[in-house]
Amino acid sequence: MKKHNAKLTKFLKLASVILFGIVVIIIVFTGSLPQRYNLSVGSVANVDITANRTVTDTYETEKRAVIAKNSVEPIYVQSESVATQNMANITEFFSLVNEIRQGNMDDYGTIIHSKQELANNLAEEVERTYAISLSSEDAYSLANMPTTQLDYVFDEAMSITSVIMMDMVDDSSLSIRIRELTNSVAIIDQSTDTELYASTQELLRTLLAQLLSPNAIYDQSSTDAARNAAYRNTINDPALIEKGTRVISVGETISAHTYQSLLDLDVLETNEFDFSLLFGIVIYITAILFAFGFYLYRKSDELFTDDPKTLLSIALAFLITIITSVYIADFSTLFSAVLFATVIFATYLGIQSGITLSVLLMLVVLPIQKFDVEFVFVTALSVFVCAVIAGKKNRKFNSATLILFTAFTSFSASVGYSLVNQSSKTDMLQSALWSIVSATVCVVAAIGSMPLFELISNSASPMRLIDLAQQGHPLLKKLFLEAPGTSQHSMMVANLADSAAEAIGADALLAKVGAYYHDVGKLENPEYFTENQSNNINPHDQLTPEESVAIITSHTTQGLKYAKKYHLPMAIQNLIIEHHGTTCQQYFYVTAKKNAEEKGLPAPKIEDFTYKGNVPTTKESAIIMLADTCEAAARSTGIKTVSDAETLFRKLVKQKIDQDQLVMSGLSFNELESIIQAFLHVYAGYFHERVKYPE
Length: 695
Fold this sequence. Notes:
Oligomer: single chain
Radius of gyration: 50 Å
Number of helices: 28
Strand content: under 5%
Helix content: 55-70%
Structural class: mainly alpha
């Protein structure tokens, strides 16, 4: 049956966790969906649409990329093959000229054609072979100039071609280089028929201009690669639609560019369900909730999160914040409800847990806030300050201080962010006002709702502890009326515990209030405890040691019953069950052992004479154990001086150490010394003699 119940409990816990996660995912997904509009190209906008986040302007980016791609100049490379061919063209051309010249003489050395006829024949052959048109002067010069001069022209042509081909030249630069290099060619005077001969420079210019080709050839692959690189670089540095940019105003016609911008912002109505967003939210929230659960699991002993009421209050604060964020995010991304949960978390779970859980909660609502960087910055700083103030355990926080400091932090963070980003004065003022309003409203709402969380949570919050510290509390009043000695003892233990906890930096308020209630179990049988006995009547005289120790040691378990009946926080319940640890009632054990020896019976088991609680697991619990022990011993021994008290206290503390009662408390030897000194400080005032007034 127990195994079945345990399995059922685990199943319910797992089901609750899964259900909580599903609810959070649904809320965040719903809150992350932008407001959508039914618009198309050519339609007229009936609302102003502003970018709610920064996105890539795909239309403008594509336009810039295409322009950048087309702006890349064609790439040319220097061709060695073209240079070689140019040199060959020069050689072959002059070889043809020489062949034609030599063919104008028969075997007998007689010239066949006249100079002009030879020039005409050469021009025709060159045009037929190379498709080159020679002027009459050029043809006449090539056909009739002296051989030595022709060789000079050939050499100059080869030299100039070689020089030009050493560099990469295109059509325009080729003609320029030809003119530059031919200007330095010597002008050879023709001795006869000078009017028929062309200038050596002009001849070379004509020949080279028609025989040479540019060695710069178009590189298709390199050009394509450069253009694609320019396209990609522009795509990788996209144009942005900044958050807050007015995309379209009322009355404007939707252009193709505007329509694409609205698509980029995902604000146009479609009939498709956004599965990609849902999948992203599921992964995103699951990761955060895993971290959230892992933290609670690791801190469960400290936070008592195994208590369903505490977990319920945490989950409720979580959900209230997320749901509220969905409805207020449209006002401003700085209007956040995270600080509401921060006050709750820090008040009930402490500063560290308040900050940690609030940061995780901030990440949960971040998609609802459109991943706004200013929201993260302002909220993170405000959470830190708010948690530090609200999470103080030694006293209840001052509400005005919490509100003012949190609001001022939000205001300062917002202004600082705006100044760094060089925002306009209007935007800076608007952000600052929203941050103040958000912080103030959230903190005030959290303080006002705390009584509701008090009904749900079973944590020892400062407010709850202060209420429990009132002597008018029904359980304390019952203790005062039915067990006055125990009540007085508890008051003294509370003073000792408060002073000691303050000295070592523990939770003084918890220690003090816990001391008020640590012995409420004695209400079950108050007359069986020394401090409540009168007229020298001791009921234990009529009982066996076993019966007596059963009554005495049961006051911790009976106290736990009273604590649960009066709904005391789990922290105080632990203090009640742990304040005697597993110590043994030595007086009754020794008596029982002596009786057994006299009757010839085996010695009783020491386990039957020990408390059935746990050793202290917190510093506050250990402090109450020591305060309880020292107060009872000081009262029973009747010591009157501080020196005697110090000797007694050190002996009792050492005894607890030897009995391994403090091994789980986390107390150091230095802290134990501080505790002893704090006890002595209290007793120094208690032992102080007042001035005796005359009768």
